[in-house]
Design a protein that fits this description.
Number of strands of chain A: 2
Structural class of chain A: mainly alpha
Pathway (chain B): Protein modification; protein glycosylation
GO molecular function, one term (chain B): transferase activity
Order of helices and strands of chain B: HHHHHHHHHHHHHHHHHHHHHH
Strand content of chain B: under 5%
Oligomer: heterodimer
Largest interface: A-B, 36 and 27 residues
Family (chain B): Belongs to the ALG6/ALG8 glucosyltransferase family.
Enzyme class (chain B): transferase
Keywords (chain B): Endoplasmic reticulum, Glycosyltransferase, Membrane, Transferase, Transmembrane, Transmembrane helix
Mean pLDDT of chain A: 89
Number of helices of chain B: 22
Amino acid sequence: MAPPTPAYRPRKKRKSAALFTNSNSSLIVGAGEGKSAPTFPLVSFLWGTRTGVSQWLLLPLVLMTVGLFRWGVSLWGYSGFQVPPLHGDFEAQRHWMEITVHLPLSKWYTYDLQYWGLDYPPLTAYHSWLLGNIGSVFDPTWFALDASRGLEDPLLKAFMRATVIISEYLVYIPAIVTFLRRYARMQAVPVWSASIALSAILLQPATILIDHGHFQFNTVMLGLFVASLDAILAGRMLWACIFFVGALGFKQMALYYAPVMFAFLLGVCIFPRIRILRLLCISLVTIAAFAVLLIPLILGATGAEARKNLTSAPEPPLLQALPIELDQGSSSYAILFQVTQVIHRIFPFSRGLFEDKVANAWCAIHTFYKLHRFESDFLKRVSLGATLVSISIPCAIIFRHPRASLLLPAFATVAWGFFLFSFQVHEKSVLLPLLPMTLLIAGDGGLDKNTRSWVGWANMLGSWTLYPLLKRDGLRVPYFVITCLWAYLLGLPPTSWQIYSHQDSSDASPHELTRVIHSTFYLAMFGWHVLEAFVSPPPGKPDLWVVLNVLIGAGGFGISYLWCLWRLINQSWRMDHRAEVQKKRK
Amino acid sequence: MYPTLTQCAIVATAFKILLFPAYKSTDFEVHRNWLAITHSLPVKEWYYEKTSEWTLDYPPFFAAFEWVLSQLARYADPAMLVVKNLNYDSWQTIYFQRSSVIVTELVLLYALNKFVKSVPYPSQHLAHAASLSILLSPGLFIIDHIHFQYNGFLYGILILSIVWARKQSTLLYSGIAFAVLLCLKHIYLYLSLAYFVYLLRVYCLDPKSVFRPRIWNAIKLGMSVTTVFGLAFGPFASWGQLLQLKGRLFPFSRGLCHAYWAPNVWAIYSFTDRILIPFAPRLGLPVNDDALSSVTRGLVGDTSFAVLPEISKEHTFGLTLIFQLLPLIKLWRRPNPDTFIGALTLCGYASFLFGWHVHEKAVLLIIIPFGLIALKDRRYFSAFRPLAVAGHVSLFPLLFTAAEFPLKTIYTLFWLILFLFVFDRIAPVPERPRIFLVDRFSLLYITVSIPLIVYCSLVHQLIFGLEQYQFLPLMFTSSYSALGVVGSWVGFMVVYFTA
């Protein structure tokens, strides 16, 4: 049995070697002519490692560098700094640490809801409880019940900033690193390119600015999502379910990813052949994971004290809507009360179609055609319908072709669909579509001019639409520094137009249409910054610049949606085609 | 050679801009005050003004430099230029002052670029790596961009002068640049003997024979240096203010050790003194009771020792001079550019290790010239390694706020891992065999730094709280660093004299 193996091996080796040069050719200019140079600055920073350096050395250095930039941003202002009485997201997170540390579980979701009542899923609550307890070791006054509201101590700030960065390094970063390692191996991407992609992904400007500037814990949710992706690549579907439930349980925003996850897991059980047992396992594990997530809260709702606490609060509308009648004194009533209250808090159906100014379809339409005239129920139905239409194609594709290699464009498309058309979108939600889209640069040919230009452009646009928010938080300087740094490192405008040049006519360079679209948007963004900085808006229209930002942003995100969709269709079509060719050969 | 110096400078600048709101020491207010003094007072009063306790105590060219900056500062925020606005730090002031440090550091970038080009091609990659290590130096990062000073700019001039000293045709410029540097900051007097010997030997005398003086060269150099000093001090001399300037520039009323002991011989001396106190009665040594309370509190003033003999200014001066002269003898006999940089480094060592009232920040005076030749071969690198660790760790106590703790430690760690690894990879094999033991010693030494930093920054506070025994971590840090600096000094002396 020995002879066939050696005959097979050399061929494989040759193939991978060819792939290697192919993948590196997008990183090195003039490799054949003796005088090689990196194509964009990020490559030159890792230039010394192209002949191979231990990951044990490279990885810590990359992680330290990106960590330093994160900490640098965190020295600046945060959401709600010196804005009494409600402050902002920083105070919300601190307040949750305060209430979870001091109050019994039965009061977590009912306590003084007017002042930053807890409205994130249970995992955030447990996370807050843990951090609050750690923080109380340093200084209990930071989290003293009620007395600590609106506290702005520099030490507290350092502690809170450290919690974000430590949470990120414990969840997001390991997830990204392992995912990229697996993904690069799957796509036969050389280690060097993968390291460059890793550095680029960890320097995504919008994520850094929102989490470490504005103050949120998005990376924990995003990290759990990436861990779930990694589990899928590894073929561990059940772990994927658990991690994804974790992401959902940390921040409800992970719902943007849920349709694809659902379609994929269902598809895996049906194609190429139906596997009932797998389906059963997946559903059971998912339900069990949700149950585990809720158990502490449910246990906290039992007992006489808890029952009294809960029944003294107003009954959640969801419970009222339930057709069953329960005795108010029974423990099952208390449990049901607790669960429905949590759901009621997490999903604020009673709020408007969109909040503030966000670069999605509704806000853009609203600018020209006021949407107040319609009833809120009607708007909700329209928004639901539009979202479903926008996500139906990617979900159908991923359901029919449950392939790991199609997941990233599918996730990106669906998340863009949600961002553009769904209900109650925040400007910060742009991080969700940006993550899978940015991960594309780690794939085969991901660092070539075409993909790099699109991913880079979407990220630039994404952080640009966050500018009005960041400006309010006093984060103007970090915004310019971090976005320009990303643009510089990836060789994008405004630092370099090299990426759109005609010089080398390799097929990977961007299409003419791409060039026109991107150039227009870059010019618009630049012009907008000039306008915003030097021209005051006309009287009576104080929000004009913000509205303009939203309009341009919505247009760009629409294009990003189409690009991701096109890429998904293209990839799946090529996959079909290849399968057909192989079938014919047989 | 990638990444280029410019690319690194761009990314480093992005990071430095993010540090604008970071902790800033009183030096920020010192420099703001100087901006105000030079802007709003006639030159005659610059060295007499004392509204603020941070009076002007740098030489005239630095005052002029502040005057130039103040012309621009007007447009940022005129309020910072008012002498009475003590501790004024509006956002505009911070933006202006911090960015002035970043912009003037371009001199360093330019000088390092020149340095790389001045090196012959086959070893240019070594010069490139060395230049990157200086450009990204945690010393400059901590002292200039957080603590607040203008060292990047000043060391840029020093390196420029060193580069000019490498070629016979530019030796005159080297002398002029160094004279200008002295008129900017007089701490560089510590290096002046090496310059004197080197320029005298290779510029004023014939390189081949000591007995053939080149009179015309000597006149040119003498005239230029006199002109520079005349420009700087002339006006003040004509107003009869030289004594006042001397009093401001050389405040000899201070004690042997700075508030926090710089890691030099006197730190080891003080540490030994502390250790000896409990044993003194048994050994039959007399104990000076006055000293028991003073040293550890580290007040600026006279340092006194409990057991060991007192050290006078004359002692420190004598020791510094002796240890400066030793390497200069070799420089006189073999004057070549690399020996010159070695001699500069050793002059820096001597004055740092034995000087009177040395600041911990002066360690840059050793690290930066040494950095230029650390890659000459592996023996140089072995001597450089403990210095790189000790010198930078000794700067940690400069920043003591919680938010800056990760900055200083992670950045220094990053630099140490990156450059010690890169240097280790590319340093060429020496012509002479290495001393095996030294390597083991330095490895052990570097390893000890980890528990030390952990103890000083965390464990100590958990055990004793924030208030008690504050001097203990400082004493450990400075004694530890002193050991490293002394060790690397001994190592480098051996390398220098056997090369």
